[in-house]
Amino acid sequence: MFELISKTKETLKNDILSGLTVSLALVPEAVAFSFVAGVDPLVGLYAAFLVGLITSICGGRPGMISGATGALAVVMVSLVANNGVEYLFATVVLMGIIQILAGVLKFGKFVRLIPHSVMLGFVNGLAIIIFLAQLSQFKYENSEGIMTWLESKDMFLMLGLVGLTMFIIHFLPKLTKAIPSTLVGIVAVTGLVHLLGLDTRTVLDMASVGGGLPTFHIPSVPFTMETFRIILPYSCILAAIGLIESLMTLQLVDEITETRGRANRECVGQGLANLVTGFFGGMGGCAMIGQSMINVNSGGRGRASGVSAALFLLFFIVVASSLIELIPLAALVGVMFMVVIGTFEWSSIRILGKIPKEDAFVIILVSTVTVFTDLAIAVACGVVVSALVFAWKKSERIHAEEYIDEEGYKHYKLNGPLFFGSVQSFQELFNPKEDTKRIYLDFKDSRVCDFSSIEVINNLVEKYKAFDKEVYIKNLSPDCQSVIDKAGNMFVAKSH
């Protein structure tokens, strides 16, 4: 059922090696996002392990990596600052329940309503966020407690090591693909730094990643309506951001691997992961586009890649933390810069002048809002703007062909959908004062879509009644007829 074992030894080897590569990149990311959220590094590391493991087993997209993310961390800041970390754990539990319900109710299917222009803006915005997050590694805290850029010598060393890592990752696959180039880049730069005794910061300078196994822990919060009132808004926002980022990352991995994931199962998997994580002292998480790209580009395709990444991460936390702490931050920054280059849709810049200006605006809008606010707001803005543009275009498409039959009655053969956006254009088609004693509205090539369309037809009937004239409707499709039937007595036009 869980497809844990890859189909061949070759793909299993690729999954395990790519999982090892991903686990190395997960450590600094989890630590960094813990600092963003204002919690202990182990809270982020436990989340990365548990969310990564459970979603890899139960989720709907093999090869996709989940863990603690910056998109969620920025929302958690005020909750932790105002109420403490225990409220965060309770929030993550409720977040998981909401996500499971979303999956059970099959809300995952609504991801198909997200336009491609929003998708492009999403990945571009995330690439920019990942890039900006790495810039802090080029700064240090001076004696006055102010973050300033590294001195020239340290800066050149940092840039050199980052460049070397990127060089290895980019060019090694041209020679051999037997070993993930990302893993080779990290190991090579780490060996070089310690062999030559280069003075550069390592993972240990950020925080110790050593710890024990996560233990079961019921959040220490009062079980009252006041607590529920505090955590519910955060849980809803986190659940929405988590699912949106996860489902859009799922679509991205689908495109790259030319396979298809299961959105509703992924919702349930994400929810189960967060539900469990909240009871084991983790900060919750969702799909990570950066690590997912590292995994896919390193050859990870099966569930074994995510499972091995989580288990390697746990091994690092419990046993081999001293080895991970030796890795230079420059090597990990180089990895993330390559992720940025691979994630950003460079083709979107080239096509901006070739696609409709509305789509170009949506791409830029979503990218900008993603950087300055959060993913959920950005995607919502993109979808709303796209929907409004679509409605506006459709509203201009309704028109009618007019003719007089042998009995001297006028017929309006309508074309285009009749809905809230097109009612104004629909009204302008008619002239009750000059029209014949009886008119026919032919809906063979049109549709009655909503209550606004029923209301505008009723208003039209009343206008013709004022001139002692009749309105008949014909050729309604079955789905339009069902809309009319539901309206009952509210619909006053006569059927022909």
What does this structure look like?
The chain has 20 helices and 9 strands. With 496 residues, the chain is an alpha/beta fold. The chain folds into 2 domains: 9-364, no CATH class; 399-495, Transcription Regulator spoIIAA (2-Layer Sandwich), CATH 3.30.750. The protein has a 5-stranded mixed sheet. Strands 1-4 form a two-stranded antiparallel sheet. The chain has a two-stranded antiparallel ribbon with strand order 2-3. Helix 1 (9-37) packs antiparallel against helix 2, helix 1 (9-37) packs antiparallel against helix 11 (289-297) and helix 5 packs parallel to helix 16. The longest helix has 33 residues, at 225-257. It is elongated and about 100 Å long.
- N-end to C-end Cα span: 56 Å
Taken in chain order, the helices and strands follow as HHEHHHEEHHHHHEHHHHHHHEEHEHEHE
Unreliable stretches: 1-6
Largest sheet: 5 strands, mixed
Count of β-strands: 9
Based on the model shown, name its key terms.
alpha/beta; 2 domains; disordered N terminus; transmembrane helix; 9% strand
Lay out the secondary structure.
Blueprint: H1 9-37, H2 41-58, E1 66-67, H3 70-83, H4 85-104, H5 116-134, E2 139-141, E3 147-149, H6 152-175, H7 181-196, H8 203-206, H9 225-257, H10 263-278, E4 286-287, H11 289-297, H12 303-318, H13 321-324, H14 329-343, H15 347-351, H16 357-372, H17 375-395, E5 399-404, E6 410-418, H18 423-427, E7 438-448, H19 451-466, E8 470-474, H20 478-487, E9 494-495
Parallel strand pairs: 6-7, 7-8, 8-9
Antiparallel strand pairs: 1-4, 2-3, 5-6
Helix pairs in contact: 1-2, 1-3, 1-11, 1-12, 2-10, 2-12, 3-4, 3-9, 4-9, 4-10, 5-14, 5-16, 5-17, 6-7, 6-14, 7-14, 9-10, 9-11, 11-14, 16-17
Subcellular location: Membrane
Pfam families: STAS (PF01740), Sulfate_transp (PF00916)
GO cellular component, one term: membrane
